[in-house]
Amino acid sequence: MLDGSHYFECACGSPEHTIRFILDKGERGDFPLIFCDFYLDQYLPWYKRIWVAIKYVLMFKPHNEHFASWVMKNEDVERLQKLCKEFKNE
After folding, report:
1. What is the residue extent of each domain of the chain?
2. Which of 74, 54, 71, 72 is nearest to 62 (CA)?
């Protein structure tokens, strides 16, 4: 069972710089997991997104426009520590 999503926005305020952590405590007898999602640019037309995916699968060297930085806000440090501690205690 997925036990909640935790969103962390970049200090710059850009919606493209958002990270989501999803905690799965593994209540079915599995071990606990944390999933991490990064926001991807979805403003490109579908055919350009497919081309980017094909280049990724074929291991072409990426261009910098597919990557961005994320800067943690000071007030989010404790939230991330709490999430990691909860994961560790499972």
Report:
1. 2-42+70-89
2. 54
Q: Residues 6 or more apart from 19 whose CB is under 8 A from it?
A: 7, 8, 36, 37, 38, 39, 70
Which residue, 44, 34, 36, 35, is CA-closest to 66? Answer: 44
Query: Phi/psi zone of residue 27: left (φ > 0), alpha (ψ -120 to 50 degrees), beta?
Result: alpha
Amino acid present at 12:
C
Rounded Cα distance between 54 and 32, Å, is 32
Q: What are the pLDDT digits (tens) for 15-28?
A: 777 888 888 877 76
- Look up the pTM and report it: 0.57
